[in-house]
Amino acid sequence: MSLLRDNLQCRDFVKSGAFKGNNPAEVVQSCDITFSCVADTTAVKDLVFGNYGVLQGISKGKCYVEMSTIDEETMQDVAEAITARGGVFLESPVVGSRVPALEGQLIILAAGERKLYDECYSCFEAIGKKSLYLGADIGAATRMKLIVNMVMGTVVAGLAEAMAMAEKVGLDQEDVAEVLSVGALSCPTVIHKSQAILSQRYDPHFPLQHQQKDLRLALLLGDKVEQPLYVASAANELYKKARRLGYGESDISAVYRAASN
Amino acid sequence: MSLLRDNLQCRDFVKSGAFKGNNPAEVVQSCDITFSCVADTTAVKDLVFGNYGVLQGISKGKCYVEMSTIDEETMQDVAEAITARGGVFLESPVVGSRVPALEGQLIILAAGERKLYDECYSCFEAIGKKSLYLGADIGAATRMKLIVNMVMGTVVAGLAEAMAMAEKVGLDQEDVAEVLSVGALSCPTVIHKSQAILSQRYDPHFPLQHQQKDLRLALLLGDKVEQPLYVASAANELYKKARRLGYGESDISAVYRAASN
Amino acid sequence: MSLLRDNLQCRDFVKSGAFKGNNPAEVVQSCDITFSCVADTTAVKDLVFGNYGVLQGISKGKCYVEMSTIDEETMQDVAEAITARGGVFLESPVVGSRVPALEGQLIILAAGERKLYDECYSCFEAIGKKSLYLGADIGAATRMKLIVNMVMGTVVAGLAEAMAMAEKVGLDQEDVAEVLSVGALSCPTVIHKSQAILSQRYDPHFPLQHQQKDLRLALLLGDKVEQPLYVASAANELYKKARRLGYGESDISAVYRAASN
Amino acid sequence: MSLLRDNLQCRDFVKSGAFKGNNPAEVVQSCDITFSCVADTTAVKDLVFGNYGVLQGISKGKCYVEMSTIDEETMQDVAEAITARGGVFLESPVVGSRVPALEGQLIILAAGERKLYDECYSCFEAIGKKSLYLGADIGAATRMKLIVNMVMGTVVAGLAEAMAMAEKVGLDQEDVAEVLSVGALSCPTVIHKSQAILSQRYDPHFPLQHQQKDLRLALLLGDKVEQPLYVASAANELYKKARRLGYGESDISAVYRAASN
């Protein structure tokens, strides 16, 4: 039982016997564990701190699992507010984009109350292929997600530069894609993003502006802990350039347009 | 039948019935097709242009397959010299390091005489898992190899920055490695290099100074065709730093020491 | 007449006939124009929005000149709060570090109410060598300052790399400094920072961590307007490295330690 | 008395009483000290090693001053060839572009035979405002020149990014130029290049492709001595981009077009 924003999807669930709350507070009141996964920090704050929001439904023992990807500080604010009212909190952002989500292949990162993680385990098994508990420290799962997405951003930017150069030096980009697909770098990202570059189709599996936002947050995290990130910051600038070229809402692979521009 | 530098290995072949030439010229004279794979540009030049060298054994119809990874210009010089004497030339550098070589899992890139490529095909099948003919233009295979290794260099540098940051923000590097190993970036390079970083063992599967040399050559190629490479050049500087720290002869994964320094 | 944090300095002014307010509100109430210049965003917020703060002293026609360097958003919040109470606001951060301040050689950047700028003009002449009115748009002066400091950060990082390389290639760093001091790049920054690097004395004329903070803010500004900043972002990472090496409170010239490390 | 490539200029000198040699060998034979300053490595090699070239005119005690900017290795080859024939060699590249050259404001860097430097001193005084002897080690003056030009390249790239950002955030670029011209970064380069960017006129005082070539050589020097150059390499890529946009023969300030693209 969860809060569903999309009314059509919601209707199907209700038909199957689900209870539909009129607002976040009501949902939380009627559930033992509530899972939330919304677009961004603003949506999370509205949902939790707004009128008839989550906080008003939380009481001793109620469990709340925040699966949205937001900044660490907001995640900690939400956790504090919920536990202050006797609630139990788990942070659990997911790794993976549209296709893994549809196929139940997400990776779930979790931090917070261990007992709640254990209770959620079967649900996580259902929606993902792997879940990982990172300890009690709220923020740890968000940091992990940013670091993993930072690697993603660097890899795809590096791939884009290679494809751009291939064309300039008279190689067939399909050959590059083929060599990469059979070598030691062969992974879903390299294979799918090479194909996207080849086909010049940038359907947003993972929108470029989200990747760039994640790089920005990762770099700010690096700033906080005094970790220089020469390669990731160069990648970040290339994604900015792609945004300027108008590819913010395209797939991350459109960073190729910045590299080949 | 080929020129073998290591006498012990050579002895075994001779025992099995192979003919051992006393010098490159003699080897070439006694073979239809000669395969060469040596360390670097200097070795290639010595072998081909030196006294009793390959050129002195080449005559009309003799085939020569250069599998060493060297710069494009030297490759073209060798090709010209051999074809000027009636020889047939194929450029065929390989992608893959020590373990793929031992397991017959190399990728063979070839450019030059198509007929010779076809004749070599069964040999390439024996030593590699994949071969790719890139056209008649000598240099194309070398450029492809540099581009593929440029991606490799960027990926491992990006991974190194991520592992360094993970430690700074209080995450367990083993957890990062695990998440990466099951996600969309899961490939032999990411898996093995994460493990090398975790174990702090940098046995040279692919020596860091070779990776940095390949990045340098790729960047110079980019210079020639006016292709900016912001991310790869940042990665290159990080490998230079690792060399300065004394890791030139260690594995490429030792770039982690530069990132975490 | 202004709020003075340092009591000893304050005493001298009072002896000379100045009125000392007991709190920000009282200072503002007793002055036509109040100038504020404090350390950071937190200090500005306390001063303006705190108990007995500036806002409580503002009434119709009271003028407030904010000379602190803070982020654009806070500057705009302060401006709105003051004008909402009938006050008149001028944003006027200064360019220049310790020595220019002592010598009246600061550059004053201003944005906001033109009439107030004109009234302040004689004061600005007294404390600086140049003032510039950038229009009514609050935030413009802060953006200008960030951009100017971004150039500063890039120049000093570039100088540091050059001095580090000079040593590695067997040149005398004093010779580099001399050539730079007579050539087309000869400016106070290049001259003084070369000397600081030569003498290995990093007395904080402009603390490195402030430079890095300004670079971070400039990069975030670039992010907002989709302006890639490849060179400035590389410089930023080098300053981060210098912070990690423990030079955050040293002069900006200590970025040399990161470059030569 | 020197070899003059431009016949019209040469004619004026001859009218004034100068001797015109028919080839480099003849010039060297008829002079005690010959000064050479030509376009690039190829021109230097032709002049020195070609038919009727410098080497054929060198005899015991003849002095040769190479003022061209070329790579260190060629400089050393030329020095060896000349001294092997009993000649005396001085390497003396100059710092400064078209206007300083016309105004006698060049800086002359010298390395090689000290006695020859002393003999040339009055000539250097005539054509430059400053000369510096860097020791007997041939190559030192070239390395110094590359390092100084590396700083130049970084500074102008940093300036270009700042001017590009200024426009994006709604500031008047003239205001940026004015603030920079009165502050601690005020130097001929910053002043003139700001003006070039403002006027959108890129008359080649120092051609961009030469700046990029110098950056490439400086980075290769850094590679040799294991000196990471994160900022200079980012600048180098930006100049590459400007070359791709067609500004190779424009002034170095046209790097702005790459930054604002």
Automatic annotation (TrEMBL), chains A, B, C, D:
NAD keyword on record: yes
Keywords: NAD, Oxidoreductase
Ranges for domain 6-phosphogluconate dehydrogenase NADP-binding: 8-135
GO molecular function, one term: nucleosome binding
Listed GO biological process terms: transcription elongation-coupled chromatin remodeling
Catalytic residue positions: 145
Any one GO cellular component localisation term in the record: chromatin
Keyword NAD: yes
Annotated signal sequence range: none
Residue span, 3-hydroxyisobutyrate dehydrogenase-like NAD-binding domain: 139-258
Family to which this protein belongs: Belongs to the HIBADH-related family. NP60 subfamily.
Name of the protein in question: Oxidoreductase GLYR1-like protein
Natural source organism: Magallana gigas
Organism phylogeny: Eukaryota, Metazoa, Spiralia, Lophotrochozoa, Mollusca
